[in-house]
Amino acid sequence: MPPLFRLLALVALALGLALPTARNGQAQDPDKGPKLRPVTTTSATTCFFCQYCASCHCGSKRMGNKDLNACDLRSLLDVKPTADILADYPKAKGYVVPGQPEQSLVWLRVADGSMPQGKGRKPDDAAKAALRRWIEGLPAPKASENLIVNGSFEDGPEMGNDTFKALDEDVTDIKGWVVTRGQIDLYNGLWQAAHGKRSLDLHGSPGFGGVKQEFATKVGQKYRVTFSMSGHPSRGLDKVQMAVRAAGQKAVFECDMAGKTEKDMKWEKKTWEFKAVGPRTTLEFHTAMPATADPFGGPALDDVKVVRVDR
Ligand code: HEC
Predict the structure, then answer these.
(1) What pLDDT was estimated at residue 47?
(2) Which residue has a Cα nearest atom 1 of ligand 1?
């Protein structure tokens, strides 16, 4: 669904939420009845959130998580609650998870009566039921297609029983990928991979390297890169750093190596976003370790995905 239609669909669903409550009792008095009103110019809110939540979670008054704006439906869907906020609600996966009230913190806190706080109006059972139905009816975001080929490095050179293979700059043996800068090592089961059996050490034997892949993009479109990061587990490294680049933008990621072993690499999921500036974009991962670092062991990479960000 194009973003504008998705927003309209959300607003329409929000209206749907208001209607059942309106039929439930207070509809005669328009002043007391539920209202649907835009709270900010860029967003619309259901009367549920503006009636019961806005006084504490809206505009400049933001209690709890300051990133959350209950008057902005996008923020309810996009902002991820932090781990300490979720600690008491192990089943919750977000504030509002489309189609899944039992995973929606907003529903769980309304259902158990812990929200709204304070002396203000409380939602009655009908209003609560409408909130639940609204979450149930929200369209699940379409799983976007991974634009990266062979993101887990499984498709590559024949390795037999070799546990790793050093690959030089410009080598294209790993399907879809080109080695950059220096040498890297392709690992094959010597250590635990984040996905499948193979993964990369961006330091070769020896070398300071990287990998890149090019794919079709749309100018101005945002893309989300996710990947798993760890580091060579048996060279006594404290921390490893890796850079990610695309479309003239760059970020550096770091992993603490404490507790990471060959059997338990404790792969960390990292996320980065960039905006495309051309019809094709090259994504590169390369070591960001200082020149004095151990050239035989560095940042490890696996399970790369790139998806469009439509919201
Ligand atoms: C009178 C003020 C008040 C009202 C009204 C209120 N809240 Fe809250 N809310 C708070 C405060 C204070 C916190 C932070 C402390 C906590 O988590 O209990 C909070 C925290 C939360 C949290 C979890 C922590 C976070 O910030 O992410 C959620 C979810 C939440 N509120 C949802 C709601 C919803 C949904 C409504 C409306 C049905 C609502 N609240 C109405 C005061 C309020």
Answers:
(1) 66
(2) 118
Question: What's the 22 CA to ligand 1 centre distance in angstroms?
Answer: 24
Q: Are 43 and 74 contacting, i.e. CB atoms less than 8 angstroms apart?
A: yes
Delimit the CATH 2.60.120.260 region(s) of the chain: 164-308
Contact 45, 150 (CB under 8 A): no
Q: How far is it, in rounded angstroms, from Cα 146 to Cα 294?
A: 33
| Domain 164-308 indexed as CATH 2.30.30.40 | no
Burial class (CB in 10 A: 0-12, 13-18, 19+), 211: buried
* Structure confidence by residue, pLDDT tens digits, 126-142: 888 888 988 888 887 77
The whole-number pLDDT of residue 82 equals 85
- Give the closest residue (by CA) to ligand 1 atom 35: 106
For ligand 1, atom 10, the nearest C-alpha belongs to 63
Calculate how far, in angstroms, residue 121's C-alpha sits from the geometric centre of ligand 1.
14
Query: What is d(CA 154, CA 186) in angstroms, rounded to the nearest whole number?
Result: 10
Distance of CA 242 to the CA centre of its chain: 19
Average pLDDT for 298-305: 98
Contact 304, 151 (CB under 8 A): yes
Q: Give me ligand 1 centre to Cα 210, in Å.
A: 45
Q: Cα of 57 to ligand 1 centre, how many Å? A: 7
C-alpha separations of 143 from 13, 123, 146 in Å: 21, 34, 9
Residue with tokens 């051309």: 278
CB contact at 8 A, 58 and 71? yes
Instruction: Please work out, in degrees rounded to the nearest 5, the angle formed at the alpha carbon of residue 240 by the alpha carbons of 295 and 230.
Output: 105
Å from CA of 96 to ligand 1 middle? 14
Q: Whose CA is nearest to atom 29 of ligand 1?
A: 106
